[in-house]
UniProtKB/TrEMBL annotation:
This is TAXI family TRAP transporter solute-binding subunit. It comes from the Bacteria. InterPro entries: TRAP_TAXI. Gene3D superfamilies: Periplasmic binding protein-like II (3.40.190.10).
Length: 394
């Protein structure tokens, strides 16, 4: 059951609405013009908005970090009631074309188009590092990222040449909470040949393996490989030193190689169950290489994501639960993202949540309650205003 906030937005049952004082005045028959509180608010908002608009006119002369900080500071200045109606005309810089991640981006596009008629919103395939550079340079207002890449950018770790200024990346919405799980699997014949039962065995025995670590631009996969090995104080160079071979191929191409017996191990991620893994398991005898719970927790903490479990029997060849880190995927904003557009993206997802969840099994874990959960990132002022309005945050 849903109610509405004072601005007409649906609010989930049990969630407090925003602006209760104004609602109470209206229930008593005191129109906004007669309320001394609202007369004061109108003058106060008009004065604050003048300041905000002046800053907006100067934004092209400000460095992204300074502008990001100013926008965060002004998050409460522009009142939600001041958001202008009309379509959303923006581009969301994204991941590579195809694959499960694209489903998240296209789902957000669908929600916005349905919520705001006439919108020209585009999901633009690319790579996560390039997308964040587009944000930093104000070439694009929004990007689809996991929780991992913005953290790397703020820390200035490769491939980012320098740490991003504070406030230059902000969160808009969490469209795929804790849905992307790390998966490590191998040809069963390879595991039996070397007596491998766990990931510990694979590393401590220094097994010479042909292992897919995905493409250099896939920062999600490369960071997981790094963290997996860091637990043992090892690196990818160590794998090569004991006779292993690193295969920089995407998951689809890696599965083809494994199907033909030309690859031993794949390190990748995805929703559960993954159709690609199900298909591979139907033509090649494969098995997951389990991590210890301690190892999984270490990787999750190292990457700033959540530890979890893949339930037993999620795949026909998997009889025991698997401890793995889980990652959320977000829409994030750069300095050029406007208050109105960020507000509308958040509102569109909130209003269209049931349809969004029905578009693909990977989206089924999304919820209104988790939209504002953008991890360590600060919320964009526009998104923050909407979430406050419907009671998702204080």
């Amino acid at each position: 059951m849903e109610t509405e906030c004072p601005h007409g937005h649906p609010v989930a049952e049990g969630v407090a609405t925003a602006l209760p004082a104004q609602a109470a005045l209206e229930e008593k028959g005191d129109g906004p013009e007669r309320s001394p509180i609202n007369l004061y608010n109108k003058r106060h908002i008009r004065r604050r908005n003048t300041m905000y608009l002046a800053l907006q006119r100067r934004r092209r002369t400000l460095i992204p970090g300074l502008l990001g900080s100013l926008l965060l500071a002004l998050g409460g200045v522009v009142h939600a009631a001041e958001v202008k109606p009309g379509p959303v005309n923006v581009t969301i810089a994204g991941y590579s074309s195809g694959g499960q991640v694209t489903v998240f981006g296209e789902g957000v596009v669908d929600a916005v188009r349905r919520a705001y008629a006439g919108s020209s919103i585009i999901y633009e395939p690319g790579n996560p590092a390039g997308a964040l550079e587009h944000l930093r340079n104000s070439r694009r207002p929004f990007a689809l990222e996991s929780m991992i890449e913005p953290r790397m950018a703020y820390e200035g770790r490769a491939p980012f040449r320098a740490a991003y200024p504070e406030g230059s990346i902000t969160g808009v919405l969490n469209g795929a909470p804790d849905v992307f799980a790390l998966k490590v699997y191998a040809r069963r014949a390879f595991l039996e040949e070397h007596g491998i039962k766990t990931f510990d065995d694979l590393i401590k025995k220094e097994v010479p393996m042909r292992v897919s670590i995905n493409q250099p631009g896939n920062l999600w996969a490369r960071e997981h490989v790094r963290a997996l090995l860091a637990y043992y104080d090892k690196t990818m160079e160590d794998i090569e030193s004991w006779g292993g071979r690193l295969v920089p191929q995407p998951t689809g191409a890696s599965n083809d190689l494994m199907r033909d017996g030309r690859l031993d191990v794949v390190i990748t991620g995805g929703a559960t169950p993954s159709g690609a893994i199900v298909e591979l398991g139907s033509v090649q005898d494969i098995a997951f290489i389990p991590l210890s719970r301690e190892h999984s927790d270490y990787v999750a903490k190292e990457l700033g994501v959540q530890p979890g479990v893949i339930p037993a029997n999620s795949y026909s060849f998997q009889s025991e639960e698997l401890h793995v880190p889980y990652t959320s995927f977000l829409i994030v904003a750069g300095p050029s993202a406007s208050f109105d557009d960020a507000y509308k993206l958040a509102k569109a997802m909130y209003d269209q949540m049931e349809r969004y969840r029905s578009l693909h099994p990977a989206l089924a874990q999304a919820s209104r309650e988790r939209l504002a959960d953008v991890g360590a990132l600060p919320l964009h002022p526009g998104a923050q205003a909407f979430y406050r309005e419907v009671g998702l945050i204080e």
